[in-house]
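Practice set, problem 2.
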Amino acid sequence: MDKTKILKLIKSIKGYELSLKHDSLEKNKKNSNKPFQRFEFLGDRVLGLVISEYLIENYENNSLDEISRRFIHLVNTNTLAKIFRYHDLNKIFKHKLDPKSDKNSVYADALESLIGFIYLKKKLEFTKSLILELWNKELNTLPQKDPKTFIQEYSQRKNKIIPTYKLKDEKGTKHKPKFKVSLQIEDLYVEGEGISKQKAEISAAKKMIKLIETK
């Protein structure tokens, strides 16, 4: 199904506009229901389920590490924003945001909101089919293995923040330095060491990935 047909299908779902109406449109009006955020909350879970199922069914011979990398790529903010733009959903998205806002993050949230709304209206099988159509060009992507990028995307997806590496210790000589950094994501904490800050951060990122995969 091409993107014109997909957009037409989305527009045919009664009330779809509600999911693309950002809370910022009525920021001066008290609205405890916050439908956009509620749809987004649900859409995030539905998307995770659909993509996880697809990867497990289609990449059964892949290692868990490869499946995790595929998953992180498919549900990260940049990928969602890319899909949102590609299907011209940004043209029907209603909002009044600060121009300095991170558009990628906002578009990613809007796509999840749309998914949550469609799930409530059309249930799982319809929503699953639509997600796979929307993600069609990205589904078989295996991104390069970069521990720090992996952790950054995971943290942005999970907590909407960029992870911070903290320098804990610096010792050794000028020609043989040794750095120790810490990294924490929610209740997961690791430390990494290396002959440079960069190598220490990569070491910490690798340890964090292992914790995430066994959580």
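Problem 2, part (b): a different protein.
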Amino acid sequence: MDAMENKVKRIGVLTSGGDAPGMNCAIRAVARTAAAMGIECVGIKRGYHGLIAGDMSPLSPNDVNSILSRGGTMLYTARSSEFLTEEGQKRAADNCKFLGIEGIIAIGGDGTFRGALALARQGISVVGIPATIDNDIACTKYTIGFDTACNTALDCVDKLRDTMKSHERCSVIEVMGHRAGYLAIHVGIAAGATAVVIPEQELDFDRDILDRIRAARLKGRNHFLIVVAEGAGSANEIGERIGQAVGVDTRVTILGHVQRGGSPLTRDRVIASSMGYEAVRVLAEGRTNRIVCYDGCKCFDMDIEEALSMSKGLDEETLQLVATIS
């Protein structure tokens, strides 16, 4: 597609909400694809706050030369209480119109997409790219940052296992995930956890934790690993209850925001690049109010309102896998 065929001449790109490894890869792909298509690209700093404040500047291929391996987001991210108001949304849209920005590519999670939808209702073309370590966006099988976050958490768990074995302890490790258990499940499977606690399943403490620890002890194991998703309850309380119930030395580790950082791994770099490329193509073709999704093989796009109406749950096969091999 050459520049004469493009339906837009200038687009903006922003990141919003929590940062995720691979966001920079998506920004790079947006800037380079836009340039290849003869479309001007503007980088908007600090998300919707920057859009309201006019905190933006041209984003050329040279500006994104060395960001593939960098974690976080070169455009920064911030939450904006003003953008939650209709007046703030109108100010953001007016800035777009004044500066000739015909389309916005918003990289982030569910809240980012709801912000994009608000812009769309003000007459601005929008495309969302899913980037969150929680992997909880229903319309896509994968969100940018998930694999890197899993591997970061797994590396921490593997190191903790060394000391856990040495002292014959039970280690309760809390991972991120907001209100979703995808990160906890994948880390739990990969680490060989004794039990995994997630928000999607109501916890029966005796059955889901104590019985598993006792069964592991009867099989000759002298150390135990419990992975807890942050939205499933307090890891500290779970650790205290385990110590009181079975008398094993129990230590709690909350991994926290270390899971958001680090250089993105191959999968995140490739999928983020593909999504950034696809997002520009969607705008160039004159389509709007879309979210770029990934079906496990390739990218596609879907209506943003339809996407936001969907819900995502863990499949029974994965849950059964955890229950069987823990």
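Answer key, part (b): The chain has a mean pLDDT of 94. The chain is about 40% helix and 15% strand.
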